[in-house]
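Support reply, case 0932

Customer input (verbatim):
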Amino acid sequence: MSLDTAGVKVEVESLVTLFLGGISFEPAPGLEDAPVAPASHRFILFRNRDEAMKPPDAETEDYTVVFRQSVRGLAVGAPVEFRGLPFGEVTRIRLDYDPETFEFATPVDLRLYPGRLRARLRRGSLDARGAAGTPLESVDARMRRMIDHGLRAQLRTASVLTGQRFVAMDFFPAAPRVKLDPVRRPREIPTMPGEDEDLQAALAGVARKVSRLPLEEVGPILGDVRRVLGNANAAFTNVDAAVSQFGPSSPRQADLDDVLQQVARAARSVRALADSLERHPESLIRGRP
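Our regenerated output:
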């Protein structure tokens, strides 16, 4: 039983195998008619059926990526993907420390299988040929060309439920150019900050801006505005009582109606200001949104 980025998997041969344990044998794809294994033949024991049945990777390339962020959730054996297609795995996770700058970095060793991507290509190849008769481009030259075109490694979350992470590779044309050590082994692939890291930085910036708002000063201002509105309501009550003393044919009636309309417009403006300050107290500093 396993829980990974693909979900929950349960593989059981029989109840006897489940309770007592055991080893399962099965012909590999395309080898159903193979001859019987001779006596004392040595079999390779795989961790699971998927690993046993996948085609062997004859071509391997080792690289290193250096992350300067938390790699929590990344483990040895985690997949390496290119645009969602798995073509490698994590083989080792280390930690480097610079005593001069007090900085920590996390080098992660990767093993890539270019043949997995090459088998999916509809046309062309991952190897570039020169002029007629020239040999194939070297592995180092091919990787340098891809890095110059923006190839970068990025740490991403595979499952929010389990917190597992994987290494994703893609092209970022706007990524700044980097200069790598040509003699370093394993060869290094530059990295890009993870998506969740950018989100955390943005949330931290918003929190800092909110903490700088003078909310303690905005509170008394809102209280003063509410008191002004209360006094205005009391004034309106007194004006209504005075208006009731005038008859509809009184010469003062038109003047009073005009004054009341002006006071009502002013009250609506003050009330709108109070509502706006209550929803956006930062507008006292930055202005209206």
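We compared this against your earlier run and they match. Two observations from our side: Residues 213-286 form one domain. Residues 2 and 9 are 5 Å apart (CA to CA). Please reopen the case if you see a mismatch on your end.
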